[in-house]
Structure formats: structure tokens, C-alpha cells
């Protein structure tokens, strides 16, 4: 069995604010250590429960957070930026399943450090379904026929995952109090939980179906202000919805929609407030 693993940072045990996820802040080095240890718990359990290959994709910010020198020696790491498919780089139909670790809820939802890609994106839709990073990434996995077997993060993230993916295993490592506060397990206890949940997810893999994306999906992104929408609308093929900050893109496939989303959100970050 070959397992794909996307590791974000905001949903990791004990991580609750920007000081732990921003490389310029004083707690970032602690966040990296905890993130790497958490990834290792999942990797170790995966190998112990029948996986022959585990590919790990660092999926936070500049995507160079995981400490490769401390990663499980049998795992392979996709690291760095720019990646054509960002959080799902390297995912294809050769994998038996995927797991999302350290994930968070979508923007405009409650949850620890909730957002969707950038803080300029308020809401994001594929056709009429609102998605965050979790949902969009699961759709890409589904395009390749790969089921998302497990999602680890806070309790609100677990609810989002369970609503999208019937039968998915969820690992709740912390409980939401506010966007920057949580009741968290200790790293030791979350490690035990993650090993147990990874084992369960692999054992239950045949009961989870891939999240199949729609054909010719319509991507819609609602931005926080009009300047961001104007920047995103510079991408050819987009449409700025009248009297709103919603930018639309009619894609041929979910892969095209995903890359359009990356370009639109990057462009939007050029907007300033002065």
C-alpha cells in the first residue's frame, strides 16, 4: 500500500496562534518540532500497518517547515515552494489512500486559525458547495480515485471532514475555544491518538469512497475587499460578479480549478490597505 500524506501546520497539537506558524515569530521553531513529531507518529503507524511507501508533502506557507533530518527515515518528503499543485503536489492515481494532518477549518468558519489558503479569501465554492483547503484537496484526491482516509486537526475540522467524506477517520488533537485558543492534548497523548487513528483508517480504507469532483467545475472565490477581487480578476478567463467581491472561473477539470485558485489568491495578495 502506498500512502499520500499532506501536512499543514495550523491543526497540529498545541498550535493556536501566529507565533507558532509564522517563520518570523518567536514560537515558530517549537511549532516545527511539534509538527515533525506529529507527522512521524502517522508515518510510523502507516508502516506498521501495511504501508510500503509513504510520501509526505509539506503543505504550510512556504512548505519548508518539516525537519527532514528528524523525519522517519523511510518516508519521502516533498518540500519547498513553488509547487504546481501546492498542498496536493505529487498526488496521483498510484496511491491507495491519503491522510491530511494538521488541517484546519475553512475561512469564515469557527475553528483554530481557520482560513482558506490566504486571509484575503473569505469563502470559496466549487459549483454550489463551499469548500476550504480540506474539501478542495479531497476533490483533487478524488479526481485520481484516491480516498481521504483520515483527517487530523481540531474538533471543528473533524466535523467539516465528516460532513464531506462519509466514513473518514478523524483524529481530534485539540478542541476549539476561539480562533486563537484551544484545549489541546499534550504531544505525547496526541501521538498515541494519531497512531491509533492511523491504524484504524488503514484498516477501514475499503469503506471510504473518493470524493469525486464535478465535471467542468465552476470555481467561485469571495474576497475580503474589492481590491483583492480586482487583482484576482486580472487572470484571463475570470469573471468579476457585479456588485460583489466574487470572482468566478469556469474550469474544465478540478485540476484546472485548483491552479486557477492558486493564481487568483496569489494575485489578490497584492492588494494593500493604503
From TrEMBL:
The keyword Methyltransferase does not apply. Keywords: Metal-binding, Zinc. InterPro entries: DppA_N, Peptidase_M55, Peptidase_M55_sf. Zn(2+) 2 binds at residues 8, 60, 104, 133. Zn(2+) 1 binds at residues 8, 10. It comes from the Bacteria. It holds the Pfam family Peptidase_M55. The active site is at residue 115. GO terms for molecular function: metal ion binding. The keyword Oxidoreductase does not apply. This is D-aminopeptidase. It comes from Pullulanibacillus pueri. The gene is dppA.
